[in-house]
């Protein structure tokens, strides 16, 4: 009996893979020939993500993909470089973690209580830069990233404006479909609940289901988060055992090197930037000490 079940499961997997391959071919045909960066962007894995985001409806996936290609052509996210957005990152309000989750996925840490600027346009460019950087650093075969959102220091006085929240959701859902694996909101204050009641209506069902609230005193939510992350890697402020501090200069050096990787990937020649170490052109990284 077990052998028959195993064969059936294997056949179902093969059938699903064949279905996906056929849908990808169909979307390729519907999209037509591509060139330049559009061709680099539209890998089979990319097309699969757009199909998944639109429940394998080729026409809807095609519309979504075309909108993204138009957005990328105008916004040029792959051309944003760290010195342009380094000022946004000075407080460590958003950065790529030096650890991965249990699935080997890139992790972004967001600390909304550390907001330090007022320009929504610059904040969105900073976000897009870090999304592109996270994608650049995904392991081979890995398509998604994880978010850890730390509400330490958050209050209504430094709350993200609703317009910024909507634009963040718009960018993530419409131009980075199926890139988010999971997002943990750690210990948000009760006052956040009113804000969340409004924001959640802008989320599609798939994205909404990936957002998890974690409260230190609620064991089930803590255990869920720890099932995604090694406790030795998680920062203490997020319930883990690692002592971490954001170092802007070190992170900047890392980002400047990644800018070269980005340029090479997209096919543009660039020389190393000298904008490291001071002022708004600086950048930085995380110092980590394992907890005891």
From TrEMBL:
Domain CRAL-TRIO: 82-246
InterPro entries for the chain: CRAL-TRIO_dom, CRAL-TRIO_dom_sf, CRAL/TRIO_N_dom, CRAL/TRIO_N_dom_sf, PI_Transfer_CRAL-TRIO
SMART domains, per the entry: CRAL_TRIO_N (SM01100), SEC14 (SM00516)
Pfam families: CRAL_TRIO, CRAL_TRIO_N
CDD domains: SEC14 (cd00170)
PANTHER family: GH16843P (PTHR45824), SEC14P-LIKE PHOSPHATIDYLINOSITOL TRANSFER FAMILY PROTEIN (PTHR45824:SF22)
Name this polypeptide is given: CRAL-TRIO domain-containing protein
Record lineage: Eukaryota, Viridiplantae, Streptophyta, Embryophyta, Tracheophyta
């Amino acid at each position: 009996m077990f052998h028959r079940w195993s064969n059936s499961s294997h056949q179902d997997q093969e059938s699903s893979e064949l279905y996906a391959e056929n849908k990808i071919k169909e979307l390729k045909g519907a999209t037509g020939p591509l060139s330049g960066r559009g061709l680099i962007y539209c890998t089979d894995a990319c097309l699969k993500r757009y199909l998944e985001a639109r429940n394998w409806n080729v026409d809807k996936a095609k519309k979504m993909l075309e909108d993204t290609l138009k957005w990328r052509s105008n916004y040029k996210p792959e051309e944003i470089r760290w010195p342009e957005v380094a000022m946004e990152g000075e407080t460590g309000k958003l950065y790529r973690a030096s650890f991965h989750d249990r699935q080997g996925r890139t992790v972004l840490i967001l600390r909304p209580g550390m907001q330090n600027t007022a320009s929504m346009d610059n904040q969105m460019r900073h976000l897009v830069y870090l999304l592109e950087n996270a994608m650049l650093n995904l392991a081979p075969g890995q398509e998604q990233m994880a978010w850890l959102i730390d509400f330490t220091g958050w209050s209504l006085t430094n709350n993200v404006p609703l317009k910024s929240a909507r634009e963040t959701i718009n960018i993530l859902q419409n131009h980075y479909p199926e890139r988010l694996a999971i997002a943990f909101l750690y210990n948000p204050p009760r006052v956040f609940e009113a804000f969340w009641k409004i924001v959640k209506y802008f989320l599609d069902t798939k994205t909404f289901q990936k957002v998890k609230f974690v409260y230190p005193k609620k064991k089930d939510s803590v255990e869920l988060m720890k099932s995604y992350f090694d406790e030795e890697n998680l920062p203490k402020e997020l319930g883990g055992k690692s002592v971490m501090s954001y170092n802007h200069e070190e992170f900047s050096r890392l980002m400047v090197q990644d800018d070269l990787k980005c340029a090479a990937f997209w096919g543009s020649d660039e020389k190393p930037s000298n904008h490291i170490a001071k002022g708004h052109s600086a950048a930085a990284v995380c110092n980590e000490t394992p907890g005891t």
